[in-house]
Structure formats: structure tokens, C-alpha cells
Fold:
Amino acid sequence: MRLTKYSLVFLFFLLGIAKIFSVPPPPPGGSPGCWPPPCVPVDGGVTFLIVAGAAYGVKKIVSARHKQKSIN
Structure:
């Protein structure tokens, strides 16, 4: 009885995950959802991530140099 109960819970869990990760059907008509076609605003987000990564790298380098000076 206990094994069947856990098997059912596991089965429903897998079905739920399959529903979450399933791909929706394409929109009818075949036309893109926005115009002009490259509708992804990549520039602002990528620039922010590059600047944030550079700032984090500089912070790590400065803290490593400061830590090295305090050891010597």
C-alpha cells in the first residue's frame, strides 16, 4: 500500500513537471508577434551585465591585493 501511494505521488509530480516545461503551440498565421522582427531588447541588459561584471572583477582584484598586503 505504501509503495503504491508513493508511486502515485511521484507520477503526479512528473506529470506536473511535464506540464510546466511543455512548449506552447506556435501562434496561428505565421507572422511575428511584433514588428520589426528582431524584437528582443538585448542592448540595455547586456551592457548592464558587462558593467556589473567588470565592477565585480575590479572589486575582487582590489580586495585580493589588500588582503595580500596585510599578510606581508
Observations:
- The mean pLDDT is 78.
- Helices lie at 2-20, 42-71.
